[in-house]
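Holo model, JDE. Inputs:
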Amino acid sequence: MRIDIVTIFPAIFDALDISLLGKARQNGIIDLRVTDLRTYTHDRHRTVDDTPYGGGAGMVMKPEPWGEALDAILGVQDVQSAVLDGDPVVIFPSPAGEVFTQRMARHLAEEEHLVFGCGRYEGIDQRVFDDAHSRARVRLVSLGDYVLNGGEVAALAMVEAIARLIPGVVGNPQSLVEESHEDGLLEYPSYTKPPVWRGREVPSVLLSGNHGAIAAWRREQQLERTRRVRPDLLSED
Ligand code: JDE
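Output:
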């Protein structure tokens, strides 16, 4: 999979050089490229923002550097050709977007080419999204109902959630199906040695060797935990 990231803070994505994702890049499973938006400015101060039309607090990201950056990544479209299924998906992390889920991560992990556009300030000139729509499948995607200073940290989270689902990135594929959200429930509590630690015992069923009883206990723990902290997950289908 190819992943492009456009940002004014490329150093934030140095985090993707390490651990499992770093290995996947070395192995050629993921072709990840980070573009500094300021590469596509042409003034002495490398300006990427300006005051909002209509007034208001804060600054808005100018359209021109975004247009040039996306032209370089997506290519310039030859007239009014339709946007197709196999076209790149451009994701703008934004509190105004649809909420990112494990289901969305699974779908995006099947794509050939993802582009993350990381906005700063109070957002990006709306025409950048409208223009990108003519060449790519564009989605505004939110991590949740809170505001970050920029899309970078949200993009990092989404890249990690998506990339680990690509075959070969996570060593043991079984670990992908046995985790929170893959079956719509939260994880059961886990224990390892020693059997008693600071007077706290591992639940005896886990030491019983009775695999049926262990599976039933874990399922009950998942249901109880989900009911208690995330009842919304049980009422959805
Ligand atoms: C992503 N969940 C939250 C923030 C923004 C007022 C203040 C800030 C692309 O446009 C953006 C992006 C971001 C950064 O992302 C998040 C986020 N998932 O905060 C703003 C808009 N209005 C705009």
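The chain has a mean pLDDT of 95. The radius of gyration is 22 Å.
Archived with the compound record.
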